[in-house]
Structure formats: structure tokens, C-alpha cells
Amino acid sequence: MKQKQLIIGNWKMNPRTVLEAQKLFDDIKKEVAVFQGTDVAVCPPFVFLSGLSALNSGKEISLGAQNVSSEEEGACTGEISVGMLKTLSVKFAIIGHSERRAMGETDEMVSKKVVAAVKAGLTAVLCVGERERDHESAFLQILKEQIIASLSGISERQLKNVVIAYEPVWAIGAKAKGVVEPEALLETIIFIRKVLSDLYSQKTAHAMKILYGGSVDEKNAGSFLKEGGANGLLVGRASLNAKKFVEILKIADNI
Ligand code: PEP
Fold it and tell me: Catalytic: 97?
């Protein structure tokens, strides 16, 4: 059976108000019922999760968090626990996004967060990606180390609750230097599966969802999913525009 594509919108620190968040969510929700071959999730800022969860009684769109605490409870000012997210029917947690790694999040912290999320039954969207892509392919070693360290507490059985998002840092955001060519993406995804196969098993590595993220829009989405071999997309800027995001969903659903 064909594997479903997974398209996740990462709203980052947007939009500015609850009303804008609800409008954006509603505009996407109106369109998603028709998609058969695509799972859709959005990851709004924490403060909007509760309101959006209330709007989502039919669970047409899965909700995700953009980060999570590795601790279950206690003296962790400013943190949000996996248990809290579960009470809001949150399904995904983005972990190890490059913007958080740039704020000081280490592989060790990422690993603890992945364990906390998976133990609670959330699906961890583990972000990995090189800062620069060099011609000698040294970036592959960086990717390998990130994957091994970030999954160090995860058993083969638990891996079904992990999705990998390959997000080359140089391709993310308004200052991106470019996007990955689909052929280069395919090679990188094959490499990631090889790392997973060596760590776990070929069967598990093959079954794992590997998403691509970095300047995805309605013009290039199809090439990442078809020629690039990605099982889905993590979409930043384009997910803040309902029309563009729905266009990406349509493209994914037609593959
Ligand atoms: C992201 O930050 O996860 C991302 C992919 O952003 P953008 O699509 O805006 O490059």
C-alpha cells in the first residue's frame, strides 16, 4: 500500500494574534477533508494550541508543538511538558529545529526531548541538517553524528513514533542560500536510511518517514516528493499562507 505523505506546517513565532491563528487554521481546515493520501499537521506557537484544539473536534488537522521539555513536571520555568500537550490532543512535537539548536540546544538535549515525547506517545519530528553543504560531502558525517546522538535513547520499537525532518540549515528561511536539488535530496535521504539501517534494521529504516524542509513552496514541493524521495515536507513560511499551503497539500495528495 502507498505510504501517506505527511505535510507539516511550522508556523514558528507567527501569526501575531489568536484571531489570525484561528483564521489561518480554519482556512486550511476547510480544504483538508478531501485529501486521502496526505496527513496534515500544523505546529502553531504554544499559546494558540488550546484554542486551535477546540476548533478541531473532527481532528481534520493534527496539531504539533514546536518544542517540548524533556522534564515531566516541576521547576522548569517557561517550559511545556509532553503531558500538557497530550491534554490538548497534540500529536507531533518538532524537536531539534535548527533555530533552537542555534539558541544552544545540543544533541544531548535533543535526545532527551525525543525520549520524553516518544514515551508520552507523541510523534517526535526530529530535525537534522548541516549548516553548510561542502563538495567533499563532509556534511554527511555531521548528519550521521546528529542522527546517532539524537536517537541514542530510542529503541527500534519506539522508532515508529519518530519522523526525521532533513532540513539543511542553509536552505531554511528568508536568508536561505538556495534549495536542495531533488537529486541531491534523494542521495541524502538514501544516506539517512543507511544510517538508520546500521543503527536498527533495514526493514525499520525503510519504513521510516523522512521529510524535507527548507524553502518549500507550491512551485518546488512536487519535485522534493517525487524526484527527491521525501515522504513529506516540513513547511515554514509557505504554511503561513493558507492558499499556498493548501496548494502544497494538493500537490502531495496527487503523488
Ligand atoms: C523551517 O524552518 O522548518 C522551514 C522549513 O522554514 P522555511 O520553509 O521558511 O524555509
Answer: yes
